[in-house]
Write a structure and sequence with these properties.
Aldehyde Dehydrogenase, Chain A, domain 2, 2 domains, seven-stranded mixed β-sheet
Length: 345
């Protein structure tokens, strides 16, 4: 099989997998919801966003952009993907890109999302691809693999622990290439209060419970939060009517709210979520930091937060010297988007 036929087979199989009549996908969704791993609305959103990309030909376009060919590919390479589980199908891009490249895929699935990606991998395996596919939720299953490359997405604090465990298992060796991605959140620069912009901003903040690295945790705007507070809350409540929050506030957020009140910091408490007027590093989940400022403030915060920032979104505004993406695409990136600025293939 040529790499061209391989890519075509993957694209056709992936399109079929996303079809509404796929009973295996339906069962994976039902089991994920039944075990309380993700809400049906978040799973539906993730699947429809990916389906749109696949149906419009982005699988073959991605292969073209990566210049995959019978000469340039990753056949016979072993790639170990250590998938996160903070979003439904968050590992889809790494898995698809690895298999598309021709490499042999070894996937450590997260126990927080063990069914959806597994159902997709099974369908690829059954299609007769020339590369092997192996997955497990247990890292010990990859003992002795001696991977050529490791793709890892997770917290910076866990990197060394994971590396030591991989070495102990002889899953890697001295020649193994590591691609480590640890970005934590994204920034939005907003200069408009138009309804479509605010709607996109709310989606970028609250989709998936604000857990993804593409989720906005910091907003920079020329408008102070106190001026926009009531208007902004109306949009949030409208979003939550369709996507009810499932997590209760943590003690840490309640403490932060009390602290803000004591020092007179402007804030809004929204059941389980805290919005505050602050330039502090957004350590806590379920918090949004609103910063009054212009383009120079965005650059200042990028320098301050460093590699923790995944993406800067705007509604079309350009920021000199800063790579930006459209806010409307925050939770709908193309298949070939580059996590932490690093291409998957």
């Amino acid at each position: 099989m040529t790499i061209t036929n391989h890519i075509t087979l993957i694209e056709e199989t992936t399109k079929k997998w996303f079809r509404p009549d796929n009973t295996k996908l339906k069962k994976a969704i039902e089991r994920t919801v039944a075990e309380g791993l993700f809400t049906f609305e978040d799973i539906k959103f993730a699947i429809l966003a990916l389906k749109e990309k696949v149906d419009t030909g982005q699988v073959s376009e991605w292969a073209k952009r990566a210049e995959l060919s019978d000469v340039y590919n990753q056949m016979d390479k072993k790639v170990l993907c250590l998938h996160a589980g903070n979003l439904p199908l968050v590992g889809f891009q790494d898995a698809l890109g690895t298999i598309l490249s021709g490499a042999n895929y070894y996937g450590k699935l997260s126990k927080k999302d063990p069914y959806l990606l597994a159902a997709f991998l099974d369908s690829l395996q059954e299609s007769g691809l020339f590369n092997s596919i192996r997955y497990s939720t247990e890292l010990d299953s990859f003992e002795g693999v001696q991977a050529d490359k490791v793709l890892f997405a997770g917290s910076e604090s866990s990197v060394e622990t994971v590396k030591k465990e991989l070495i102990r298992l002889q899953a890697v060796n001295e020649e193994t290439e590591f691609t480590i991605r640890t970005a934590k959140f994204s920034i939005a620069y907003i200069t408009s209060e138009e309804p479509e912009v605010v709607t996109d901003l709310v989606e970028a903040i609250f989709r998936y419970g604000s857990q993804g690295c593409r989720s906005v945790a910091v907003v920079v705007s020329p408008t102070r939060f106190s001026k926009l507070k009531c208007h902004f809350q109306d949009y949030i409540e409208a979003f939550w009517l369709k996507n009810p929050p499932t997590k209760k506030p943590t003690d840490a957020i309640e403490y932060q709210f009390a602290y803000n009140k004591a020092i007179g910091r402007d804030q809004a408490w929204l059941d389980h979520f805290l919005i505050q007027d602050s330039e502090d590093f957004p350590e806590l989940d379920a918090t949004l930091h609103w910063v009054e400022g212009d383009e120079e403030k965005v650059k200042e915060l990028l320098n301050k937060y460093g590699g923790a920032v995944q993406t800067v979104y705007t509604a079309g505004e350009k920021i000199e010297g800063v790579k930006t993406e459209f806010l409307s695409m925050a939770q709908r990136p193309p298949l070939w988007w580059e996590p932490d600025g690093i291409p998957v293939i």
